[in-house]
Each structure stands twice: as C-alpha cells, then as structure tokens.
Amino acid sequence: MVQYRSSRTQLMDVQEKLQQEDTQLFYPNKRTTTSGTKCSTPTTENYNKRTESISDRNNELHRIKEQLEDMKHLMDEKGTNISDATPVVRMKNAIKKLADELKEMEVRIGVVSHTLVGVSMKNKRMLQAQAALDSDDDDD
Asked: CA torsion angle for 54, 60, 61, 63 (degrees, to 10)?
C-alpha cells in the first residue's frame, strides 16, 4: 500500500512538471511560484505569435509532404519505365527485321550478279561469233 501511494505521488509530480513545461513552452511569459500559483497571465500577442508559428510550420509540413509524394510518384514512374522491357523488345524486333531485309537484299544482289554474268558471257560469245564471221569474211 505504501508503494502504491509513493508511485501515485510520483505520477502526480511528473504530471505537474509536464504541465509546467507545457505552460513554459506555450506561454514563456507566464511564471509560476514554487507553490504552483500563477504570477501573471499570458499575453494574447505572444499566444497569437506562437499559434501563427505553429500554423506556419504545419503549412510547411503539408507542402513538404506534397513534394515528397510527388517525388515518390516520379520515382515509381522511372522505376516502372526502367523495368519495362517494351523498348528492348522493339529494338530486338527492329534488328530481326533488318536482318531479314539484309538476307533479301543479298538474294537480290545474287540474282542481279547472276544476270550480269549471263549477259556478259552472252556478249562475249556474240563478240567471238562476230569476230569469227569477220575473220571468215576477210579470208574470202
């Protein structure tokens, strides 16, 4: 029972100290005596300044929270874009398409080359035949 009373008085002392600290924090001009009685009342001007200061800080906190949310949203977007494989897939498809076009062009080049060789040989035969005719005409 004695312990209970001493704990209760300690609790009451702590509560009284907290009240005094709160009073000192919000009303620094307010003084208390050792018995706890108030010597003077707080000025409304000081109270208004403190209230305005708290309001300003709350507004700043709100603004900073909005900036934080914006940055989080931006970082999430960037993370999504980085992990998004769509650009890589597009590049792979473009490379595959270019490779297919390259094969097709090589086939076309081969066909044109073959045609050119054929025409060249035909011209060579014609020149040889004409040269043979010219030499036969000269012999007569």
From this structure: 150
Q: Per-10-residue mean pLDDT for the chain, 140 residues long?
A: 55 72 64 49 80 89 91 85 79 96 96 95 92 76
The predicted structure's pLDDT at residue 88: 84
Q: Is residue 27 within 8 Å of 47, Cβ to Cβ?
A: yes
Query: Are residues 129 and 121 in contact, defined by beta-carbon separation less than 8 angstroms?
Result: no
**CA separation, residue 21 to residues 8, 32, 57 (Å):** 20, 11, 21
Per DSSP, the three-state class of 85 is coil
CA distances from 76 to 44, 63, 72, 80, 85 (A): 47, 20, 6, 6, 16
Closest CA to 24 of 37, 11, 42: 42
pTM of this structure: 0.37
- Round the CA-based radius of gyration of the chain to a whole number and report it: 49
